[in-house]
Amino acid sequence: MKKILGILLILAGGSFWSVPLRAQEYPGCFLIFDDENVIQLDEVCPLPPTVEGRAANPGFIEIPIKRRDAGIPVVDVLINGNKSFEMMFDTGASGTVITQTMAEQLGLEETGTARVNTASQNDLEVSVTQIDSIEINGIRADNLSVGISPTLDIGLLGQDFFGGYDVTIKEEIIEFRMRESASTGSP
């Protein structure tokens, strides 16, 4: 009897969980069925509380997407505490790269070279420099070694800046949630 009951429960559970699910179509937490019925689940997984449009939870930060370049989000970044630049939020880049123009405006000199692999080229030699800080809405990374590209028109913000966070890219914002293993402040 127990074996038959167990099989029935597995079959019943299998049919319930085979419902196709889609995410990010509506705000909050929800479930959409094949017949397009939506069940809100905000009581089960509530969104972080907000204060004047920003998250009140100190481990949750929203950054506005200024525009998109070839589908990649572009955000405003403060470098060395005094100059703001647009940079592409590049989830595929392990390191941050600034343009030659950015380096000149910041008064940065080449401190060395590094060999890197890019999406289009392997074992490429690039100039590197040291940046004191990069900051966006309270997320800050200090003492980063960054590449200088003579060919890019816009810088790339890489994993060395945001790798300590879980990141969700939405239509108009990028959400950062600090990982439990990340320390408070810089990742």
Automatic annotation (TrEMBL):
InterPro entries assigned to the protein according to its UniProt record, in alphabetical order: Peptidase_aspartic_dom_sf, Retropepsin-like_bacterial
Pfam families with a match to the protein in the record: gag-asp_proteas (PF13975)
Highest taxon above the source species: Bacteria
CDD domains membership: retropepsin_like_bacteria
Protein name per the record: Aspartyl protease
